[in-house]
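thought: fold this chain, then report.
action: predict
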Amino acid sequence: MNKLGIVLIIMALAGCTANPPKQEIKIGILPIEDALPIVVAEQEGIFSKHGLNVEIIKFQSALERDSALTANELHAVITDPVAVILLGEAGYNMKIVSLCLGKTPEEGVFAILASPNSSISSVKDLEGGKIAISSNTIIEYVTDSLLKEYDVNAEKIEVKKIPIRMQMLLDGKVEAATLPEPLASLAVHKGAKLIVSDAMLNKSISQTVIAFREDFIRENPQAIEKFLQAYKEAVEKINSQPSKYRSLFIEIARVPEPIANSYPMPTYPEPEPLGKENFLSVYEWAKNKGLIKKEISYEDIIYD
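observation:
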């Protein structure tokens, strides 16, 4: 073989190794404000720059998201610690790789509201009453945590679908309900009374997290580090120019038009582990309710 042929072969081989295939990650999200950094990282090519091919799959409910996850159609999800622990109890092992929102109380997104014509005007007025929730979810966990904080006992009634729960509250068919943002703010705009929210406390009681399947982490440890680097870059972009991303934020979080101008945009925390105290609070709650039988340690569920 002549020298030219050898040179061409070497150049071809170099070309093959210069652009290795990007690691594919499929992540499931809901239409919530927590998802903004993920969407920005994908739309602005930040994931790609870090050697990842991230496909964002949107779901309308946590049930749909978790069904896809347990069918191995997703590698990761934006979720909450309650869901991660319950998935683990069912045999689907996940690890939380980072906090999304909930580092500070101000990032809280849940509120207990009273119906417009209800006599309830304070947390103490909830004593002995009924609060509409969705059972065995972050909604119930936050409701229980808020009631415990104020030493109040109330009966919880099941209204699984959040839009129906809000409408029943506004129509006076339930006297109180726990709602997530931005529907909590919309309900207040329409006449509901804000009684208490997790944002009013002096400590954070609700968090959203990014969780990956444990088998994916084991097989692709470098992909997780790249993902977190890209996520951090997206967070820095958003926090440095929030006005640039506000319209996308409103779209992703599906903030209703009547409150779109006034609805606050959070400062997103950089990637960090879920706090041990936060994990233990959720774990003990789930255990006391009989939702889990397995012993789960902080190290079992947190990526390090």
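thought: worth noting. The mean pLDDT is 94.
final: tokens above.
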